[in-house]
Amino acid sequence: MNLLVTSRLQLRPLAGEDGDSYVALYGNVTVMRHVRPPLAEPEARRSFSEALRQQREVPPRRRWWTLQTPDGTETFGLAGLAYAGVGAELGILLRPAWQGRGLASEAVRALCAYAFREQALSSISARHGLDNRAAHRLFAHAGFEPAAAPPGERHWALAAPSPIAGGCSGGAANPLT
Ligand SMILES: CC(C)(COP(=O)(O)OP(=O)(O)OC[C@H]1O[C@@H](n2cnc3c(N)ncnc32)[C@H](O)[C@@H]1OP(=O)(O)O)[C@@H](O)C(=O)NCCC(=O)NCCS
Where is the N-acetyltransferase domain (predicted)? Predict the structure, then answer.
């Protein structure tokens, strides 16, 4: 797993030092409003231990990145990929004070480019509830296409770019670039 750096953030592979920020995110009522019921601290600590264990699994089933300022001094979110065959589902959470600044868009762009380029994924999916406007706009503007979904959910899919078009990995045709 690599450290991914963009102009305004870095995605650092989740590590033992990230326990407190992980617990704070999963316990935050505002952040979890559209995701799942917030976790009480003991449950969040257990979930963090499991995430760390998954981080070491080979072949990977899940991988996690902590979202930080480029100098690594402030942690403001978490992104993850859950792998299934040649695809993966992307999830992302930001602390409320850091939302609405385009940081999730920048993180999604970097993570997709990395996953298509380095992990040879053929597609990346995402899902959220119908009333999650921020997630809807995030994935729509990142170039994801609507996909079939069960009632009450919205699903998205982003196909790997063709080498000619560039797409997520750097061409001009894809909104992720
Ligand atoms: C979804 C989430 C990651 C977006 O993070 P963010 O950093 O605010 O996203 P960005 O600033 O990159 O904005 C992405 C788009 O969402 C829009 N947006 C951001 N917050 C919004 C809000 N509260 N309501 C409506 N739209 C919103 C932005 O305007 C932007 O749309 P635009 O390109 O049309 O301007 C963040 O709201 C979050 O952590 N939510 C809780 C967890 C969650 O729902 N995760 C998604 C499921 S995996």
Answer: 9-165
